[in-house]
Amino acid sequence: MMSGEEAPTLQPEQEKQPDEEPPPAVSEAPQQSGSSSPVVAEEKPLSIRALVLTGYGGYDKVKLQVKTQKQQLAAGEVLVRVKACGLNFAELMGKQGLYELLPPPPVTLGMEGSGVIEAVGEDVKDRKVGDRVIMLIRSGMYQEVVVVAAGNTFLMPEQMSFEEGAALPVNYLTAYLMLFESANLKPGKSVLVHMAAGGVGVAVTQLCQTVPDVTVFGTASASKHEIISQGGVTHPIDYRTKDYVEEVRKISPKGVDIVLDPLGGSDTQKGFSLLKPLGMLIVFGAANCVTGQKKNLLALAKSWYNQLSLSMLKLMQTNKGVCGFHLGYIPDEQLIVRTMGKLLELYSQGKIKPRIDSCYHFEEATDAMKRMHERQNIGKVILLPEAKKEEEVPKSNPEPVENVEKTEAAVNEKKEETTEEVKAEG
User: Fold this and answer.
1) Cα end-to-end span (Å), the chain
2) Would you give per-residue pLDDT tens digits along the chain (426 residues)?
3) Is 287 helix (H, G, I), strand (E, B) or coil?
4) Residue 71: in which H helix or E strand, if any?
5) How is the chain split into domains, by residue range?
6) Which of 31, 56, 80, 278 has the most CB atoms lying inside 10 A of its own CB?
7) SS3 at position 50
8) Which residues contact 85 (CB under 8 A, 6 or more apart)?
9) Quick check: bond before 394 cis, omega within 30?
10) How far is it, in rounded angstroms, from Cα 110 to Cα 55?
11) Nearest to residue 8, comparing CAs of 82, 118, 103?
């Protein structure tokens, strides 16, 4: 999962974060204030629809706004018309103030997307107008037009759809780096992945199939078992009605070689207990902390109380390993670039293919977030910046497009960029 600073060119009202922040997984967009670089994009102000987190809390804090601003490109930047964006669990945590790398509101959400380059800045040699690209940035993707560093873009294979492009970066980078860099997956090994029907779960399952004789245990609700089995999960387990530890033991009494844990709390302890000697537990999330629309202090306390506690002696005596993974804290930009190259090659070879669960227009952001929060999705949930056509507009007004409070408008008026709230259609 990624998060971090809002790209300065997209949200000029955000203050620069302190220097002690961890290094980014991908290069930050250069600051534009005081830049002497010539303007390559049109100087004409653009009206851009964006999904903005206006405060911590429920779905009503994510609002659809129109931002009127000048788009100026510094050297090494490109301007992209966004066609599709990926929704991640990080956005749900960020909405509740639980994602430590996200700047304080107001901030435009979104870390990954795909689109078409409409303008390039100076010193951009390997990108041109018209290129279809995948983008990976700190935040600010949930808007119609985005300015990013050219190094944060990746050329899309010709056969790849924009929805697939937006579904690839965060989930597949996370899955690949955990399996092959941290866990060193080899033929004949066994893997337990929770939330096997989610974006990362699908990516893990597909990548495991690129290695011979890998057994995949996947937890998911019973209604999803047929689909995840077709996708490559060897042993689907209904975590809602059965004890997955007991179910794994029935099939593999000695346990498994790799456990991928996005849950945290007591599930991390269970995962450690399931490891074979020389096995690896990788913790990459804390979904157990997100139990409702708003921050749940009881859930946080429960997760903290039940967290795994180990001594070095116990690790030695059990011959087990524990590893953490967070895409947002990886400082090696070249590792990200190389891994994206491998993933795009695997896609072109037909060995991986993002599964798109559903697509929602920006006006329907609440519905999209609810679907992911309630674990209804099988694969990736996609957000579409393009305005919903009149005949498609739902009868009821979705929460994200409510009028912005006057206090928020007053704050925005003090900034260089002006924003106005989009009124609900229909």
Assistant:
1) 35
2) 343 333 333 333 333 333 333 334 443 333 333 333 444 444 677 889 999 999 998 899 999 999 877 678 999 999 999 999 999 988 988 888 877 878 889 999 999 999 999 999 999 999 999 999 999 998 999 999 999 999 999 999 999 999 999 999 999 999 999 999 999 999 999 999 999 999 999 999 999 999 999 999 999 999 999 999 999 999 999 999 999 999 999 999 999 999 999 988 889 999 999 999 999 999 997 665 555 556 555 655 555 556 777 788 888 899 999 999 999 899 899 999 999 999 999 999 999 999 999 999 999 999 999 999 898 999 999 999 999 887 654 444 444 343 333 333 333 433 334 344 443 333
3) helix
4) none
5) 46-156, 170-354
6) 80
7) strand
8) 110, 112, 113, 141, 142, 166, 382, 383, 384, 385
9) no
10) 15
11) 103
Number of H-type helices and E-type strands within the chain:
12, 17
CATH topology of domain 46-156: Quinone Oxidoreductase; Chain A, domain 1 (3.90.180)
Q: Kindly list the distances between the CA atom of residue 75 and the CA atoms of 28, 36, 79, 119, 122, in Å, as whole numbers in the listed order.
A: 13, 9, 12, 12, 4
> Which tokens sit at 311?
């001594």
Reply yes or no on domain 170-354 having CATH 3.40.50.720: yes
- The angle that helices 266-274 and 244-251 make with each other, rounded to 10 degrees, is 10
Three-state SS at 186: coil
Residues counted in the chain = 426
- Any idea which residue has 């190259």 for tokens? 341
Cα–Cα distance measured from residue 340 to residue 176, given in angstroms and rounded to the nearest whole number: 10
3-state class (DSSP) for residue 65: strand
- The pTM assigned to this predicted structure is 0.80
Three-class DSSP category at 8: coil
